[in-house]
Design brief:
NAD(P)-bd_dom_sf; 7-stranded parallel beta sheet; Rossmann fold; alpha/beta; 251 residues
Length: 251
Amino acid sequence: MSEAKRILVTGGAKGVGAEIVRSLLAAGFDVDFTYRSSAAAAGALVDELKAAHAGRAVRALSLDLADKVALDAFCDGREAESYFGLVHNAGQPYDALAAMMAQDKAEAAMQVNFWSLTRLAKSLMRNMLRAREGRIVVIGSVAALQGNPGNAAYAASKGALLSYIRTLAVETGKRGITVNYVAPGFIATDMMAPYAAYRAAMEKQIPAGRFADPAEVAGLVAFLMSPPAAYVTGAVLPIDGGLTAQIGVHR
């Protein structure tokens, strides 16, 4: 691939996002990725990938998806650039029972997890529609597919993403754009650190008996950007070790 196609990844400095960036570079794409506060990790990732993939371009771009003014300015700056793909990986957790939910925190999660994607997609899609090709992948959650106490706000934001991508897939299918939803279960990243004491018990509830490795999620994203995935659109793809396939009642 002499002239690599370019992909934008949100939240690409650490964890699953960093593995997605690595997988896409390895697949021959150029990648821009955003980060909010992980400047050191972002810089280290850029250095690592430039050394490993000579001739490929990778850029780290500072962006706080919660800042609507900054997001608008970022999107305005991207409209003159052509991206083949968009991976919306950035997310903001918020756990609280519905009866105890703080409205401002719930709305903040919705802004980062959902509204930022609609703004980014609107900006990048214009050139995709002109080119009659493009790929959009959203990293959602099994929380959007199965009810779980304490997940009301977070699950609602991921559920909104799911409804949005299905509509977008229908609207853009004839223009060569695919839009898909990846729904991870539990992944072995720093985000799960607060639940370390419960990990063994949680893994017993998963048919596969373990958490996912971030590279397994990244591999699915890389496939969805590849030529063989050109007919996959509007799909919901759980990557959860069988978690959503089972009835959640155990004898």
